[in-house]
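Entry 14. Structure prediction run on the chain below.
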Amino acid sequence: MNIIDHNIEKLARQIHEDYLTKIRAAGDSNHPSVVEWEKLSDEFKESNRAQARSIGDKLRAVNMAFDAGESAFQTVTEFDEETTHFLAKNEHIRWMQEKIANGWVYAPIRDNEKKHHPCLVPYEQLPLAEQQKDINTVNNIIPLLKSIGLRVYTQC
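Output returned:
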């Protein structure tokens, strides 16, 4: 078991806390996932865990990896704009696959009971505010890993 797998719950909670901070700052607190972790539905908790589990795949997609600092490769302290947008698009695809697997479908108006969601569209069709959520997810990768003693590095 690698260190991320061992820390999935901690990372998932931190992902959710970061989400809460950003959503509340934007004044968008009228959503069933804008609650403390203990009150969060199992579906939303698992969504945060899935996001945490996907970090290694995201990094591999851009020829990066993580470790505790033992390799000689150059540390990445932030992603450049091109990498950020590539990873944000991939995060949106991952999120859509997760939603669809859980029975969600596209609809112009969100309805949690019917599992209808207006963001089940290609990344390029998302409103900028929704794209920003995926960008925030990507920008949180390096600090999240750092919080458990890991760093991101380039593999070349």
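The chain has one domain: 3-154.
Filed with the rest of this week's runs.
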